[in-house]
Amino acid sequence: xxxxxxxxxxxxxxxxxxxxxxxxxxxxxxxxxxxxxxxxxxxxxxxxxxxxxxxxxxxxxxxxxxxxxxxxxxxxxxxxxxxxxxxxxxxxxxxxxxxxxxxxxxxxxxxxxxxxxxxxxxxxxxxxxxxxxxxxxxxxxxxxxxxxxxxxxx
Length: 154
Ligand SMILES: Nc1ncnc2c1ncn2[C@@H]1O[C@H](COP(=O)(O)OP(=O)(O)OP(=O)(O)O)[C@@H](O)[C@H]1O
Ligand SMILES: [Mg+2]
Prior knowledge:
Order of helices and strands: EHEHEEHHEEEH
Strand order of the largest sheet: 1-7-6-2-5-4-3
Helix content: 25-40%
Radius of gyration: 14 Å
Bound molecules: adenosine-5'-triphosphate, magnesium ion
Shape: globular
Strand content: 25-35%
CATH topology: Rossmann fold
Distance between the termini: 24 Å
Largest sheet: 7 strands, mixed
């Protein structure tokens, strides 16, 4: 399987939101987005854009203390924060595998903690700081499909 990569500069919060909206516009049932990056890298911000593009209205708080929050939009969205999970065994215990195999879109912060549960077609987004802004590295076998049909945002 060919795994393509691309890099997107995100000079400010608005750019992170826009990337999230772009990915949300391309998302299909069953898609998984794995979000990587240190504390404050912009993972939750990206999910805010994703949720907006899926037609989810209202607040989308960080799920850190509840681990999983579920929303209903054009597609269901499950927002998972794996930060407090010890690994895949604990993720299985709270049903992450069922979400990942389900009909909605699943976005997982700190996805490396549950890496062995993620499907092969997962879109991985690595966020890092770049000056005052951020940079996103996108990687996945279906990257072309994720980026197709959306202007020149990248
Ligand atoms: N491209 C960007 N440039 C500058 N600041 C940004 C950018 N994207 C997001 N931010 C800001 O970074 C801060 C942290 O963002 P966010 O909460 O999304 O990070 P996170 O990766 O989810 O953190 P955590 O690991 O704590 O869950 C927020 O204040 C947000 O506005
Ligand atoms: Mg977060």
